Amino acid sequence: MTHMPTIRDEDWRYADGDALASLTPSDLDVWHDVVLEPGETRAKDLVLDDSHPGIHRARLTVGEGARAEIFAIASAAAYTRLELEVRLARGAHFQFGGVTIGGGEATREFVTRVTHAEPEATSEQVVRSVHWGQATGNFLGRIEVARDAQKTDAVQDFKGLILEKGASTNAKPELEIFADDVKCAHGAAIGQMDETARFYMAARGLPPEAARKLLVRAFIADAFAAHSDAEAQESLLDNALATLGDAV
Amino acid sequence: MLKITDLHATVGETEILRGLTLEVNAGEVHAIMGPNGAGKSTLAYVLGGRPGYEVTSGSVEFMGQDLLAMDPHERAAAGLFLGFQYPVEIPGVSNVQFLREALNAQRSARGEALLSGGDFLKLAKEKAALLKLDMDMLKRNVNVGFSGGEKKRNEMVQMGILDPALAVLDETDSGLDIDALRVVGEGINAIMRQREGGPGKGVLLITHYQRLLDYVQPDFVHVLSKGRIVKSGGADLALELEREGYEAVAA
């Protein structure tokens, strides 16, 4: 029988407890299995807005020299969770850019487990969280480097922006490294809107909403900067910023 | 154009402006000089509407409107430009994007037609050339990685693009070397001096030193001390201050 998670489980500790209580096993059993052949490149944009709330889980097996890219927005008004399990073969690359954004009371989270199973694989994960109201944004990122996965290069970068008192963000980087010749970097920072910048922009004539939009756009842009398609990148940014419309 | 009457303002619990009265008419350049802590920057921020700078009494009329009743962005759209002593860095937002949005927000507030991307770039190029600022710098993020002098020149490029009726310039001369000082001084003249048949403009130059006034000749010089204007005069007053010091002149 499927173990039903609660917030006492490490991987679910920042999740919405009430939402977890109402889950059924079928909510958890749906794993999308994706296999990338050696040398293949595949990219996917995911917009988890009000038409796709809930739990989304994918297992990516990335073959030798292959490249998997996922760019995601979690902006639904209800509990939303994207879980990614990634296994990287020799010289493979995993690129993840994610933005959780929204107000209300919802929790929106990304949970990644990236296994560098063989040497010379690389991964880069950039996550930005922008919340207001009573909302919560989380990034739980686990990186495992296997014993013989030398020359691994893994980067995790998280930044949270709290627009209103009452909102929160949580970051939980986890590194488990069994090889000795690896580079693993992670950084996390949480802050508020730069009031000096807002006044500077107002002094040049930008109304508060326009200034905020420009600053939030600059803040989340890093998450999609690695997207190879400029148009898709813009549309993801616009999509995420549309959520900002109802922020105070 | 600008009429400040018996203005009192506090920052936190401290009263900084204590009954300041000043009038700037179209076509005039006024210089405000004074020692550290006299309230020069506070005056600039109060006029710009910076949060935390609270007016406790007095009035400010700008182009016939109650300036103090307007939000900062409305003051800008009404024609007020505040040149910052410490221009702010905004990572992730390019100068071009920032200024185009700002200009179009102002134009939209005034009911004027918006500027297209091409027309805006043409205008930006012209003003950047005037201030001898490389156009490539305008494509970079707002003030990020700019030297002190480049930030001040960028302020003047912004002023040129936004074309205000009144410029309040808070120590625009600080951090400039001799050549940059001349370029900035000539820029202020080119942008803010009365043009034949054009609308009258006003300038309020806030400065510690006389040197910028060699390039931007003021019509009036005021000495600010302890939150009020204690002496006013012509351009000669600045020279006198430079020679004899604030204490001797303002006593």
From TrEMBL, chain A:
It comes from Croceibacterium salegens. GO terms for biological process: iron-sulfur cluster assembly. Coiled coil: none annotated. Residues 55-219 form the SUF system FeS cluster assembly SufBD core domain. This is SufD family Fe-S cluster assembly protein. It holds the Pfam family SUFBD_core. InterPro entries: Fe-S_cluster_assembly_SufBD, SUF_FeS_clus_asmbl_SufBD_core, SUF_FeS_clus_asmbl_SufBD_sf.
UniProtKB/TrEMBL annotation, chain B:
Transmembrane segments: none annotated. Residues 2-251 form the ABC transporter domain. InterPro entries: ABC_transporter-like_ATP-bd (IPR003439), FeS-cluster_ATPase_SufC (IPR010230), P-loop_NTPase (IPR027417). One of its GO terms (molecular function) is ATP hydrolysis activity. Pfam families: ABC_tran. Gene3D superfamilies: P-loop containing nucleotide triphosphate hydrolases. Keywords: ATP-binding, Nucleotide-binding. Belongs to the ABC transporter superfamily. Ycf16 family. This is Fe-S cluster assembly ATPase SufC. It comes from Croceibacterium salegens. The lineage of its organism: Bacteria, Pseudomonadati, Pseudomonadota, Alphaproteobacteria, Sphingomonadales. The gene is sufC.
